[in-house]
Amino acid sequence: MVLGLSYAGMMLAVGGVAFLLLVHDRRSGERGILTGLVMVGVALAAGGSVLGVFVQGPFVTGVGAGAMLDPAMLSTVLATSYGDAVVVRLTGLGILLIALPYLWNRWAAAHGWWPASRCSRARRSCS
After folding, report:
1. How far apart are CA 95 and CA 11, in angstroms?
2. How many CB atoms lie within 10 A of CB 24?
3. CA distances (Å), 17 to each of 5, 14, 22, 98, 116, in order?
4. Against a cut of 0.70, is the pTM above it?
């Protein structure tokens, strides 16, 4: 269940950013809703990833839920490939959070930095 929460959050976060980059025309009235959806995805993915680290150790070793907060167990989990994947995932989510406000940058959109900005409804063409 924790892994599913993390995957659902990643799909919502990455899919939301892909939509903003490739499809959306950056209407300011929709900004709060769309960035809110991406933020919910980031929160779900980050929360699921962190919970996954706590659950992974007892799950693999079979020692019971009491070992979830054991520092030795946590360091063991973080030293595995699963821990590496969680660190990479959290780093990517952090980068996504930093980049999210720039998806609405009017200057970047006006100068064609984002693919969705190359198509204009007023011009009815794409460059």
Report:
1. 16
2. 19
3. 18, 5, 8, 12, 12
4. yes
Rounded Cα distance between 117 and 111, Å, is 8
Q: Which tokens belong to 21? A: 């980059």
Domain count, the chain: 1
Helix, strand or coil for residue 68?
coil
Angle between helices 71-78 and 81-99 (to 10 degrees): 80
**Euclidean distance between CA atoms 125 and 110, whole angstroms:** 15
Give tens-digit pLDDT for 69-121: 888 888 888 999 999 999 999 999 999 998 888 776 654 555 555 555 455 55
Report in angstroms the alpha-carbon separations of 73 from 19, 52, 76, 81: 39, 13, 5, 14
